[in-house]
Amino acid sequence: ASYNLLLLPGDGIGPEVMAGVETVLAALKETGIASFETETDHVGGSAIDVHGKPLADATLARAKSADAILLGAVGGPKWTGVAYDIRPEAGLLRLRKDLGLFANLRPAICYPALADASALKRELVEGLDIMIVRELTGGVYFGEPKEITVLPDGSKRAVDTQVYTTGEIERIAHVAFDLARKRSGRVASAEKNNVMKSGVLWKEVVTQVHAQHYTDVELEHVLADNCAMQLVRRPKQFDVLVTDNLFGDVLSDVAAMLTGSLGMLPSASLGAAEDGGLRKALYEPVHGSAPDIAGADKANPIAMIGSLAMCLRYSFGLGEAADLIERAITDTLAAGTRTADIATDGAQAVGTKAMAEAIAAA
Amino acid sequence: ASYNLLLLPGDGIGPEVMAGVETVLAALKETGIASFETETDHVGGSAIDVHGKPLADATLARAKSADAILLGAVGGPKWTGVAYDIRPEAGLLRLRKDLGLFANLRPAICYPALADASALKRELVEGLDIMIVRELTGGVYFGEPKEITVLPDGSKRAVDTQVYTTGEIERIAHVAFDLARKRSGRVASAEKNNVMKSGVLWKEVVTQVHAQHYTDVELEHVLADNCAMQLVRRPKQFDVLVTDNLFGDVLSDVAAMLTGSLGMLPSASLGAAEDGGLRKALYEPVHGSAPDIAGADKANPIAMIGSLAMCLRYSFGLGEAADLIERAITDTLAAGTRTADIATDGAQAVGTKAMAEAIAAA
Ligand SMILES: CC(C)[C@H](C(=O)O)[C@@H](O)C(=O)O
Ligand SMILES: CC(C)[C@H](C(=O)O)[C@@H](O)C(=O)O
After folding, report:
1. Residues in chain B closer than 8 A to A85 (CB atoms)
2. Residue of A121, A64, A20 whose CA lies nearest to A353
3. How many domains does chain A have?
4. Model-level pTM greater than 0.70?
5. Using the 8-state DSSP alphabet, how is residue A237 labeled?
6. Ligand closest to the CA atom of residue B75
């Protein structure tokens, strides 16, 4: 079969790590395992430079008709200091919202070979394997009103609105429980029901979905502040962690940092299943655009290549091809190949390009 | 001078650690350094049991007339599962709001003797000394609307509102910059201006206050998700960290956990300076009510006793008495006395009472 992939390299190190994906795709094609048609377009700062806005309508249309989307990273100092609706990040937010990508899956895995790169003691993170399920199209990111008004005395008042409905919470809860069944059968749900009404509804709906459909899965409720603490104290207590958009933003960054392998972590943002069973989906590294090392052939392409593997698995059911890529990553690391971010003191680091080629060869 | 202190032991281990404060107050009185009149009242779950609500009006009135308030901890499984406005936590939130305690100061200090208790590698936390300045009476905690409505189809919609005004941000920024001047002269301000309008206003106002009054202080802006990451990766990069109510809740818990000394960390919640120069203030440990060990003489009273020291320093200008208490804590630890939470494997732990007595004696 041939699939249509939209590549959105974006800003900073985005184009370099995306080149790694193209290297791997070429290798997959050669071996005859799978073949893809790719299109490339702009998003974020690079789209602002070209089109004057971070997501052109034509790009959105392409994204809607593509079978899946791979995104590099957006943002950089060049485009800050302006109203946030015309910043690079706004392009990403609009993609998520307009494509209905409500479920953000962020695995936080500690690669054994890299456990020493973690800030945490080795025994606390060795073998760590958490799946964060973050709600991605609701909450304070998109609720209205969302505005700054000028008061009569010239001072200002800013408002953001966190909104969640039963339906929004139900569908993300299903994603979390379904994933838990394929993993260790445990879900932790994080909110602040002691302070927020959306937290009260969140807890209530997750509890209901659990009682009605997933009594075989173990469910634990945890306050978001305590959850952040527990992630640092004893991260391996968690398996699947489901939470809202804003808490998910912070907690998934903490979890990613714990692994010591930030440059290695992929993510998937999934929409609702469509008629053909296919979910609209976007795959991107957890790391950002790292403008300080952009263009220097220093970035680690593994998170981006791992995002391609997730894409093959979740969007196209190509589990074997995904396994192949993931094994190639593991083998390449086992052979001692390291980019600068994961090279232990003294070890020789390779560049972005060389790493991608090593993985493609493997 | 004689001051009037209101003691609110609260729930769980609250009463035990508050007993430690009384032990230390008695020792201070004996030595003639300072003398206090204390009153004791209920808050949280214990107030629900006695008065049917987590903060009786009479208790609030007492809090308003007291020179300062010491609080133990509130909450516990006994009082969960009900609407949150009549839960133990609601008593604490009402105290903060009605007393105007807008500035929550949370030091995160790693005691050298306890660096090994941290989940982080020793070199990352040794010497850690961060002061988190959390806005405490605004944001999503108190903004309206804050409600759950039932939709025509029977499903629900929950709304919370994050509101910040120029004035609210200005006054917390002043607290942070003033503190930084007495410390290492650096402030980091955390928000999500790439997603939230309140983050846009936050950044704008903090920038203005800095430019107008504190150009001698170094100011850095950081996104809250990245801040959480950086706290784990390299916590010592931060000195004073100022942020809003909700991010402060999560980030201060992360910072506290990093130190490995959660049972040791005090906090101060300060109001605006009144006519006499006195600020209305409440002091409490960062840790919670730990219902699992309540009544077992296992809790560490140091955070509570440290809160008394903060009280003497900030509310009464009794810096020397505060130093004395803090030195007594350090000496007691140096002598090897440990409660169970900070005892390293094999070492004999003492109880709450014995620890408080050792500090009082010192
Ligand atoms: C870039 C930004 C808008 C985004 C977010 O806050 O969701 C990022 O932090 C993320 O987690 O993907
Ligand atoms: C008990 C709870 C309402 C409170 C909060 O969320 O502020 C607590 O977590 C804290 O940080 O003091």
Report:
1. none
2. A20
3. 2
4. yes
5. G
6. 2
